[in-house]
Amino acid sequence: MAIMNHTLKPIFKWVGGKRWLIPALDKIWRPYNDRKLVEPFTGGMAVALGLSPKYALLNDINPHLINLYNQVKKGLILNYRFKNNEAYFYNKRKRFNQLIESSQYKNQEAAAIFFYLIKTGFNGLCRFNNDGKFNVPFGQHKSINYDIDLDPYHKQFGDWQFNSKDFAKIKLTGDEFLYVDPPYDVEFTKYHKKDFNFADQIRLAEWLKNHKGPIIASNQATPRIIELYEDFGFSVKTLYAPRRVSCNGDRRPALEILAFKGIPKNIISRI
Q1: Could you give the CA distance from residue 202 to residue 55 in angstroms, rounded to a whole number?
Q2: pTM for the complete prediction?
Q3: Whose CA is closest to 23, among 7, 36, 4?
Q4: What is the DSSP string of 134-158?
Q5: How many CA atoms lie within 13 A of 226 on its CB side?
Q6: Could you tell me if 156 and 49 are in contact, meaning their C-beta atoms sit under 8 angstroms apart?
Q7: 38 has which bridge partners?
Q8: What is the DSSP secondary structure assignment for residue 262, as one 8-state letter?
Q9: d(CA 137, CA 120)
Q10: What structural domains does the chain harbor?
């Protein structure tokens, strides 16, 4: 039986992270905690770490994020002397982009630099240009704690699988529990060199409708998103979400949706 994990936080803050939502999600997850948790857009992995399933398939289109998780699973140790220094930051960003350009970004060095860039860059943002190069500027943080013991994550990741592919290429049996948290229906969606537009939102909803197992989907509560999920037979709830990390510095609460499919109403009513 999965036990809600209060000790393992995400490795770093991630735009749109859902750690604040774990108490609500856990109430719905409990009847299904013997199933495999699948996240097509795992991001900072707050949900998987919070629900702590035995088995999980965690996917993200960002190969650098998935490389970091795979390297942690293999036993990555962050024994680098990182500096919260502008010149050092741009030197590491240049090296990271060289690794991308030479297709050598699936290794421990790239994983460690990616960790450093997210921790040190502006507003915790992960952003790439059209050439796939990381282009977030120096963050000018007063202080940063780079010390993190990755051994507990290494142990947690034992039966978890990490993939980087388009969500539609994920192979499902139909019994999995899906938590789906795509790039939101907002202006900025450039977390990878390929944008995620409303056509992709529709494609995602169409893909989800064919899954026979339980589904929870998050998104910005825009009128067209609410209409989209209701048209596909989802039950939709709205709630205000805190913004602890934002691409534009806006920290005001935002109205979001949780869309449910394949989950009885009496379970949904728990939140």
Answers
A1: 28
A2: 0.91
A3: 4
A4: B-PPB---S--------HHHHHHGG
A5: 10
A6: yes
A7: 57, 178
A8: S
A9: 9
A10: 19-62+151-268 (3.40.50.150)
